[in-house]
Design goal:
Blueprint lengths: L2 E2 L5 E2 L8 H34 L3 H29 L1 H18 L6 H15 L2 H12 L5 H9 L1 H19 L2 H22 L12 H7 L10 H4 L4 H5 L2 H30 L5 H33 L2 H20 L8 H17 L1 H11 L2 H33 L2 H22 L2 H14 L1
Antiparallel strand pairs: 1-2
Helix pairs in contact: 1-5, 1-6, 1-7, 1-8, 1-12, 2-3, 2-4, 2-5, 2-17, 3-4, 3-5, 3-8, 5-6, 5-17, 6-13, 6-16, 7-8, 7-13, 12-13, 12-14, 12-16, 12-17, 12-18, 13-14, 13-15, 14-15, 14-16, 14-18, 17-18
Length: about 450
């Protein structure tokens, strides 16, 4: 392994440095910034799209949900494909696909056409959660896994923070259609950069040092059940584990809050609070800034607790429960605050506490599942979680159309969020997992 220098002499890379994994993390983060900027654009442009196309609240909710009809199954399909073909290939193709349909959103001139475009858009965005998890798992040691996922996935709210004022600015300069064209072009360039820089594992990368390779092999604990125990466990074995089912429900509640916010909060600010386009650039982006901080800090705290207790699953579960309880309490009371600024600040607190939990769902699965099954299992959990994206925008739209009661929208999300807390607090303990494994062994 060598690097060609400017004077044409071949020199080996330093064996003491292992910085390449941070470059891979940076590229993953860049992809996820784009992922959420593209996704957030619909909500930001929502008031203009509703007015331009003459849509009802229910129709706009269906357009938002169309994305998830394809996104949710491709969470699993993309993860499964990354186990077969590697995360580099799957993510690169996915970025190019969703960027193409981001640009084509500008052609949406009716409810039906917008529904079709957003449905096709979801095919590309679906793999990102499972594939980014597998990429981090392939490049980082277990003691840094939650931190790595927190920093990488923390780029998703950063995408909202950047995308919101960008879309607002482009709408101000031209109209809502041009915002999607510009984001689509940016995405094609990022897809090219991904293929140029990223490889599936350190041992496949021409820039990697031996230290990069050795670090990735470090483990805080071994997977709960690996291929060396009694043959390789099936995908179904992991998908039936109570702790992963509980994690899926908690992730579903997380998604319900997130997608209600993503789709409807800009509309709420515009229609109920009377926020204009210029104000929306600030009010719509501030919660995302808090989300970046929440994602990164949640991953960092989780890894510290995991190292100190030696119980990584328990540490991740505790962060999920605390974060989701705080999220539910704040989200339920958005409509009760007196001023628009108070509502925006409270929503910022919602996104912060929600995103504290964001890296934990991925990290728990990485603690339990060996690499060869990780993409498929992560995709399965992510697919269940993102069913909330199909249901929540439509439910919110129906509530708004039938009752005009925004309080009911936020209380519904809070209640679903709390259900996941209860399940994770019960099943997300090492002792419960050990009992499940012993029962399974006695049956076999």
């Amino acid at each position: 392994m060598s690097i060609e220098t400017a004077d044409n002499k071949v020199k080996p890379p330093s064996q003491n440095k292992a910085t390449l994994r941070w470059i891979i993390l940076g590229m993953t983060a860049l992809v996820l910034v784009l992922n959420y900027a593209d996704r957030a654009a619909l909500g930001v442009a929502g008031p203009h799209i509703i007015k331009d196309l003459g849509l009802s609240g229910t129709q706009f909710g269906l357009i938002a949900s169309a994305f998830f009809f394809s996104y949710s199954p491709f969470c699993f399909i993309g993860g499964w494909l990354s186990d077969k073909y590697g995360p580099r290939t799957v993510m690169g193709i996915a970025v190019a696909w969703w960027s193409l349909f981001t640009g084509l959103t500008a052609l949406g001139g009716s409810f039906v056409l917008m529904f079709i475009i957003r449905f096709l858009f979801g095919f590309g965005e679906g793999p990102q959660g499972a594939v980014s998890t597998k990429t981090m798992h392939n490049w980082f040691p277990q003691r840094q896994m939650s931190t790595a996922m927190g920093l990488a996935q923390g780029a998703t709210p950063l995408g909202g923070a950047i995308g919101t004022p960008l879309v607002v600015a482009l709408i101000g300069i031209a109209d809502w259609r041009w915002s999607f064209v510009v984001l689509g072009i940016i995405g094609i360039f990022i897809a090219i950069a991904w293929f140029a820089v990223v490889r599936d594992r350190p041992d496949l990368h021409p820039w990697a040092t031996q230290r990069d390779i050795d670090l990735q092999r470090e483990k805080l604990t071994q997977p709960i059940l690996s291929a060396d125990d009694k043959g390789e466990p099936s995908l179904g074995f992991y998908c039936r584990m109570p702790v992963l089912l509980a994690t899926s429900v908690a992730f579903f509640g997380y998604g319900w809050v997130l997608f209600t916010f993503l789709t409807w909060f800009p509309v709420y600010l515009s229609e109920v609070r009377g926020v204009d386009l210029k104000g929306l650039a600030f009010a719509g982006s501030l919660p995302w800034v808090f989300g970046v901080i929440g994602f990164a800090s949640g991953g960092f705290v989780s890894d510290i607790l995991a190292r100190r207790t030696g119980k990584p699953i328990g540490a991740r579960s505790a962060v999920i429960v605390i974060g989701l309880v705080a999220t539910a309490i704040q989200f339920a009371f958005i409509t009760y605050v007196a001023t628009t600024l108070s509502a925006v600040l409270l929503m910022s607190g919602v996104v912060f506490s929600l995103y504290i939990t964001g890296a934990q769902y991925f990290a728990i699965i990485g603690d339990i599942v060996p690499s060869r099954r990780l993409g498929g299992v992560m995709g399965y959990v992510h697919a269940i979680a993102n069913l909330s994206g199909i249901i929540s925008p439509v439910v919110a739209g129906e509530i708004i159309d039938r009752t005009g009661n925004w309080t009911l929208v936020f209380f519904t999300a809070a209640g679903i969020c709390l259900l996941g807390c209860i399940l994770v607090s019960f099943f997300g303990r090492e002792r419960k997992i050990e009992v499940y494994l012993k029962r399974n062994e006695s049956k076999s």
